[in-house]
Amino acid sequence: MNINYPLPDEIIRILQENRNKTNKYQHLIRPGGYMPPHIDLLIDAITALSLGKNILLKGPTGAGKTKFAETLSNLFQQPMFSVNCSVDLDAESLLGFKTLSYQGEKQMIEFVPGPVINAMTNGTFLYIDEVNMAKPETLPLINGVLDYRRTITNPFTNEIITASEGFGVIAAINEGYIGTVPLNEALKNRFIVLEIPYIEGAQLKQLIETNSKLNDETLTNYFVKLSSDLIEAVTQGKLSEDAASIRALLDACDLSVYIPPKRAVLRAIVDKLDEDREKEFVLNLAETYF
């Protein structure tokens, strides 16, 4: 079923008028969408994108950055092309590639556009995930796309491409992970930065109810409390951020419908950790609830 959303400026007005009334703006977000812990986060993201700014979602793994990007795309009623960064990311992964094709019996070279050019020509959002995983020499290829010019010279066709109206860029970053590199200032200055915290409390409970198969309220409350303890342990430096991933918690909730919840925590959270000390810590926490 298609949902007709208000225009972004109307969304901002609704949010501003109902800052302290969560139930008054929840209808704007599709079931399963991202409900930010602070309404100002949603207002600021929509405002920046409405003004043609790029936004950088910065926060721990599993905090909901990708889900937030998808929610913003839905609110603006447009699809989103995605780039998943890695050390192997190159110009072809970003812009597209040439391939052989046939027109009748005649052999031709055809250019197949990549996510950046697709988003630009279609006037939609471009989502760049884990932007700091890319090699430092790769992303400057799209500097012109990210600033006021909104243009790029396609190195494969020499065509100058200017973004259509509606084009916008959302990027996400996980800091301090193996394989990541600090963003250079030229790239960072092209973004409005939004810090994405973990979702906790009533909002996490709602997220579990709408995004997992678990419908046992008692178990749901225990998972919410477990998540709070894990986040606190991460804050105190006792655990790595992976342990408090909301994505991993939702996996545990799904598994707990079919297997004992303690074993679900083992499979979805504990076994992803590297250090025995951390594994034991999380298992002990799970033991107190399950």
Question: Could you characterize what this model shows?
Answer:
It comes from Ornithinibacillus halotolerans. Belongs to the CbbQ/NirQ/NorQ/GpvN family. This is AAA+ ATPase domain-containing protein. Residues 51-197 form the AAA+ ATPase domain. There is one protein chain. 41% of the residues lie in helices and 17% in strands. The longest helix is centred in the last third of the chain and has 19 residues, at 217-235. A 5-stranded parallel β-sheet has the order 2-5-8-1-9, with helices on both faces. With 290 residues, the chain is of the alpha/beta class. It has 2 domains: 8-195, 3-Layer(aba) Sandwich (Rossmann fold); 201-289. It has helices at 8-17, 22-25, 39-50, 65-75, 91-95, 115-122, 143-146, 185-188, 201-211, 217-235, 246-255, 261-268, 276-289, and strands spanning 54-58, 80-84, 96-103, 106-113, 125-129, 151-153, 160-162, 168-173, 191-195. Helix 12 (261-268) runs antiparallel to helix 13. The two termini are 39 Å apart. The mean pLDDT is 86.
